[in-house]
Design goal:
Layout lengths: L1 H14 L17 E4 L6 E5 L6 E7 L12 E9 L12 E2 L8 E4 L10 E6 L9 E6 L2
Antiparallel strand pairs: 1-2, 2-5, 3-4, 3-7, 4-6, 7-8
Amino acid sequence: MRTIAFAWSTILVIACGTNDPNKFHDGCDHISSLEVTAGPTPDIDWSPDCAVNTITVHQALTPEDPGSDPLPVGQTMWEIHATEVAGNTIEPSVRYGEVPPGIIEGSPPLPLTVGQTYIVSVGTVSLSGPGVGRRLFFTP
């Protein structure tokens, strides 16, 4: 009986590897920095090198971060997110408008205007409590 239990548990471990679509992927436990390159199709990058669940770009209603939460935002310019089942699977860095494989586009990209201020937000989801996130005001 012990041999059967060991064999069954070995099969379960092999079957539940990282390619299992129902495995929740942990993400960043903190996001220390967020960077956006210049131009109308910027690269969005964060550190440490860990996965997040969402990336959202909005028009800014103010030219700089007023520190309020929730932050008042304008039109959604682009939004992508991982599947709810997977958790955090968006790896850095992501180019504006390019959807990584296996990621869902919630809002298609609208053209960014040079000189206009935008807000990029990245965030995680967690099974054990609140996720983490970071936002950055940027002007392409």
